[in-house]
Amino acid sequence: MTALDLSSPVAVVGTGTMGQGIAQVALVAGHPVRLYDAVPGRARDAADAIGARLDRLVEKERLTATDRDAARARLTPAGTLAELAGCALVVEAVVERLDVKQELFRALEDVVGDDCLLATNTSSLSVTAIGGALRVPGRFVGLHFFNPAPLLPLVEVVSGSATDATSATRAYETARAWGKTPVACADTPGFIVNRIARPFYAEAFAVFEDQGADPATIDAVLRESGGFRMGAFELTDLIGQDVNESVTHSVWQAFFQDVRFTPSLAQRRLVESGRLGRKSGQGWYDYRDGAERPDPHTAEPAGAPAYVVVEGDLAPASELVEMIREAGIEVRQEDERDGTRIVLPGGGRLVLADGRTSVEFRDVVHFDLALDYRTATRVALSHSQDTSRRTVAEATGLFQALGKKVSVIGDVPGMIVARTVARIIDLAVEAVAKGVADEEDVDTAMRLGVNYPLGPLEWSRRLGGDWARAVLGNLHECVPTGRYAPSLALHRHAYAAGKQEGSSS
């Protein structure tokens, strides 16, 4: 099954931001496009807006004037649904209400032919439920574009329970012909991206709610240590707190209130107060004229230790050993089988975040996971109230000697990056095990859909197959609500990875 022929008309129903973006993508690809909106005059306004964007593409030399004129000639506002007859594909981008979408597609079936592909751009509703009332449900599929559709490459191609394989394949190939990167997935709450991305927001909010750190510090650690493009607080301010919370709530409800997807009370209060982010002028941050962005907590300069003792290989932080040597600090290395840590001159220990709190140990400082310790510009430390001042100062001075800013946060288990990455890996592994998508598509979706620095499965391979399971196991002991309990799929993943690592050693 191949992509739709470029001579085949494509219709877009709903002319908001997403609808206009999808229409522009199909138009630039070469299709005749018909726009329809239930509000009179809105389709004409949307066509004018798309035309203006095409003008800007010409100004930026991304489109020729000839191609722009041809595209404009192919764009037609429709006054009624009946004018969509003869279309080969109709993509819906209306309000996220199941009853509205079902009614729309029932009406479309009376207009278009039985061979017309029907698609929804829903981000959180069930594709199966939307298409369940159709006379020909096999031709119904999800085509979930990401905003802004003309710029972001990812499209999730979602097969509902009744979707024919030929329909899914045609939708997939059409998206690819439009210059997009499609990924195939089953109809599950949140599909790939909105399912697996929930911990990125949830864990940041949980650290804040537990008084571990303020939003500016958490965001800085996620960016400068975790390698994420944006922190969770600034990203949800950009998305809109109401929009982000709505998706979280929808996924939580769709999973029968699974504790792993529980919405944030702090975010609920933000939405209730009308602080929706950039669009309202206030969210986690203040965007009003004259408002200053708060700085992340950064420790004062401390002296570097003269030497350290490295016990074990430091596992995911092993590159620190050479970095410490390069900083002119003596490294005394010992083979320690019962743990991996850095012992400081005062006798205190520096341990990679593993899901436990520092209060469980004597004179310990935890340091957070980094995507790449060489390129990271900030590292988070945490300690208990019983950790000696000397140990905290030596740990701070050590990372500062490596050229890192240091943020000292509260003694929260798993810190910031480690707990976030461990939970993302767990949900990704589970999604693959449950047949939502394959490993390659999961990694592609998370890199392109939400700009993660690595796909979750690739991240797991770098950290070691048992790393996420061990961190979540410790977190589950600290917070035994079920939120951090490693999935059965992650246990199996860790076992299989352990066997593979053992056979290759």
Element layout with pairings:
Elements: E1 10-13, H1 17-29, E2 33-36, H2 42-59, H3 65-74, E3 75-78, E4 89-92, H4 98-109, E5 117-120, H5 127-131, E6 140-145, E7 154-159, H6 165-177, E8 181-186, H7 193-196, H8 198-209, H9 215-224, H10 232-239, H11 241-254, H12 265-272, E9 307-311, H13 319-326, E10 330-334, E11 341-343, E12 349-352, E13 364-367, E14 378-383, H14 389-401, E15 405-409, H15 417-433, H16 439-450, H17 456-463, H18 467-478, H19 488-504
Parallel strand pairs: 1-2, 1-4, 2-3, 4-5, 5-6, 7-8, 9-10, 12-13, 14-15
Antiparallel strand pairs: 6-7, 9-11, 11-12, 13-14
The CATH class name of the largest domain reads: Alpha Beta
Fraction of residues in helices? 40-55%
Structural class: alpha/beta
CATH architecture of the largest domain: 3-Layer(aba) Sandwich
Subunit organisation of the chains: single chain
Task: Walk across the major sheet and give the strand order.
Answer: 3-2-1-4-5-6-7-8
Q: CATH superfamily of the largest domain, please? A: NAD(P)-binding Rossmann-like Domain
**What number is the mean pLDDT?**
95
Radius of gyration: 26 Å
CATH topology title of the largest domain: Rossmann fold
Largest sheet: 8 strands, mixed
Please describe what this structure looks like.
The model has no long low-confidence stretch (mean pLDDT 95). With 505 residues, this protein is of the alpha/beta class. α8 packs antiparallel against α15 (417-433). Helix content is 42%, strand content 14%. β5 (117-120), α5 and β6 form a beta-alpha-beta unit. It has helices at 17-29, 42-59, 65-74, 98-109, 127-131, 165-177, 193-196, 198-209, 215-224, 232-239, 241-254, 265-272, 319-326, 389-401, 417-433, 439-450, 456-463, 467-478, 488-504; strands at residues 10-13, 33-36, 75-78, 89-92, 117-120, 140-145, 154-159, 181-186, 307-311, 330-334, 341-343, 349-352, 364-367, 378-383, 405-409.
